[in-house]
Every structure is written in structure tokens, then in C-alpha cells.
Amino acid sequence: MELSYQSTRGKEANVTASQAILKGLAADGGLFMPSFIPKLDKTMKELSTLTYQETAYEVMKLFLTDYTEEELKSCINRAYDSKFDTEEIAPLAKADGAYYLELYHGSTIAFKDMALSILPHLMTVAAKKNQVKNKIVILTATSGDTGKAAMAGFADVEGTEIIVFYPKNGVSRVQELQMLTQKGKNTHVAAIHGNFDDAQTGVKKIFGDQEFADQLEEKGYQLSSANSINIGRLVPQVVYYVYAYGKLLSGGEISDGERINVAVPTGNFGNILAAYIAKQMGAPIDKLICASNENKVLYDFFQSGTYDRNREFILTSSPSMDILISSNLERLIYLSTGSDAAVNAGLMKELSETGSYTVTPDMKKFMEDFVGGFAEETENQTTIKALFDSTGYLIDTHTGVAASVYHQYKNQTADETKTVIASTASPYKFSGSVLEALEGTKSEEDEFKIIDRLSDVSGTQIPQAVEEIRTAPVLHQSECDKDKMKEAVMSFLA
After folding, report:
1. Rounded mean pLDDT of 377-405?
2. pTM value > 0.70
3. Measured at the alpha carbon of residue 102, what is the angle toward residues 97 and 107, in degrees to the nearest 5?
4. Position 291 confidence tier, pLDDT thresholds 50, 70, 90
5. Measured between alpha carbons, how far is 212 from 209 in angstroms, rounded to an integer?
6. Which residue has the higher pLDDT, 119 or 145?
7. Domains of the chain in sequence order
8. Of 382, 412, 20, nearest in space to 235 by CA
9. What amino acid positions are annotated as catalytic residues?
């Protein structure tokens, strides 16, 4: 059976992988999903002997079926190279009985590097494959990490422009500086006066504006996305869950076929959805622990079956999870309807118009692999400090949320299943909050003095990606109102 892609809202079907990657978002506002989730064609024992790059090929070839072996291996080898500061690409660290999957060894020290290192290569191959003559404009909203990782990935990539919108005062200073100092003639970034959901909604509106698309077409441009709504972002994320299981197996930490749990700090839902897809492919994963911060819209959804974004938006120390509209959840909702695009489209319309929707009991039962939990700020700080004090292992504030929720889950269920915690960013990306967790007081010092002190206190090395922005000149200074994003796009392209 030939794998193809279709929109979760039903208006596009039989789309190839390369076409889905180029489009990013379907014309009807839906997200592209494969016509079925393929099964791994190697055993976990066979996969456990492979490098990260080899594992990536074995997983991605099953989804990206119109890429040749040579094309796909070339994309993989160019993506997962010396820009990662560890040969393993995604090492596992054992601390306090759990396994931390370190996804932050790429050039922007956050897990977004895992997918955004390969997306530009997948996209340029896709453009050639589909005889695209227009310049591709990558349009992205970021809650902090995607923006820098996308800008770094697409910087000076021929035939592309990259435009990033982020919420002013809604990202850490390190995240902001990483974007504002990014080199590349084709890179553009603007701070919007609003929160991440405003940025994401604005980007989706631009994608849905046919008149605007026609104006861009006249000027020789076409839009695509580097957000996790792009299937070219989601598929590479599946890889590291398969790889993590293989590493546990080859390291003798688990026996062949033994099931593991996975705990993931969750905002836009893409990272934990990738773990779910790995499970559907045959990786022996049991529970998917979905960890939220105080913006606990996903926790409430898994408890009640009602998704409701009509609530206060809270700024926390884990800003990449400060999200009330989890875009990738739509893919799970679609699967839970039995891939009924009409039912899914109706729910998404309800969300757009009223801010909420409720799933049926059968749909809720379909999602029983997921367990929701949330951590308040004080609990997150306590977890970071306790882990460091007892083991010397330092984690960031997003990983702290996942670790907190993992401990809650364990205490409530007495489930002793071995657990992989997705460690999504370097502690140095959120140094002020991490130092506050360790010392108990908020420092008013300059960001880089805090970074130096965190290194002294923890005895850990400051990553090169942070050292680089210490003295780098600010190259981007644009700001705009949330209802002026279209105008900003036009001014950047002019």
C-alpha cells in the first residue's frame, strides 16, 4: 500500500511527502497526515546497533517515500554532523532513576535543532523534485526555540527567505538574543506585541489568505512553514524515541520488548505526538506522560475530554510551553475520529469560533495511552534543585516540568516502568530561572553574569552557542502589532 498524505480537514489528499513538506499547511487550514502509520521493518534489536544517522534513515524512509535513498541519506548526513557537540547526537543520561534524553546538543541548544537541522535539506530537495521556480518563504511563529533553530537552519540557503515572529517579552533573553544576532541575508525576525498564540494565529491566517498568496506568487514567492505543523518537522522527531529505546537496549538497561514510559514537556504537542507515532510504528512504549506548566490546557483536556483555551494566559519560567492552542493536537484528534476529516474539521471550527470543543467518549478512550500532569512554578524549582543536589545533574525549566510530572505520576500510580524524560533545552538557555531554582532568590544581574554564576555554582560548562551571543552584534530590530504581521512580511520581502 502506497503511503501518501492528506489534510486533517479533508480538502487535500494523495499528496506526496515532498509536496506536504513544501506546503507546510494544507490549503484548508488542516495539517498533513500520512494515510497510515507505517511499521518499523527492522526489529528493535537490529535498530539498537545503529548510529543516530542510520536510525534516522530507517525511520524516515518509511514516511518520506518519494525521496530516493541517496537523497534521504544525504539530507540526514548533512543535518546530523559536527554542528552537534556530541557524536551520539541525542545522548541518554541516567539520573535519579530516570533516563534523560538530551535533545539540546545542536547549534541552538534546544530540541528544535533535531528536526530543524534537516528540514532545510528536505525542503530544497523537495523544491527540485517538484520543479518549484518560486523563492520559498519560510514563515514561522515561535515561543522561543523554533525561531532561532529555523533561522540557523535556513540562513543563506539558496532559494529561501525565513521570517520569524515571536512574542515581545514572551521569550528568555538568551532565546531573544539568539534570534536577534542571527546572520544570513535571507533571515528576518520581528517581535509582535502579543503572546505566542497571537503569533501562531497570525501566521495561520496568512497561510489561509489566498489573496495574499496570489500577491506573493506575482512577486515570485510561495509560503511554507518550519513550525511543527510541517510534517517535515514531525517525522524527524519520531527518530529520537526509536533511538532512545535502542540505546537502552544496547546498554543493557532494558530487555528486548520491555516497555518504557516517556515523559515530555508539552506546549504545541508535536514532541509527544512524535513519541506516540514511534509507539504506533512498533517501539515498545507504554504510557505517554504529557507534562504541562501552569498553562495546563492539555492536562485539563486529558482529564475531561474538553479542550478549552478560554482562560488566563500565564507567563512562566518555561516559556516554550506558554501555549493555549496546541496545534499538533489536531493530528491526534483526527486519528481519534478514525481519520474522519469532516468530524475533525467541525471540532476545529468550534475551537476557532468558541475557543473550545469536547470529544466523544470513544475518542477519549482512543487517547488513553496519554496521561496528563502539570507542575506549578514552585514545584518545578524544587525538582530542579532536588535533582541537582542529589545527583549533580542539571536540567532546564522545561525538563523540570516533565521531571516534576513524572514524579507525580509515579507517586500516584506506583508504576515502576523505566521512563525516558525528554530533556528539551540546555539549562543555559534559561539560566536566570535555573539559578533561581538552585539558590532560592531571583538575581537582578545582567544575563551573562547570571550565566557565569550558573557555571560556577553547577560546575558545568557554558555551551559555545551561548558564548557566541555574548558579544555578537544585534542585526534585527523589527517589531509589529499582532494585526500587522502581513504588512511585516511584505516589508521584509521588499
Report:
1. 98
2. yes
3. 165
4. very high
5. 5
6. 119
7. 92-107+232-458 (3.40.50.1100)
8. 20
9. 112
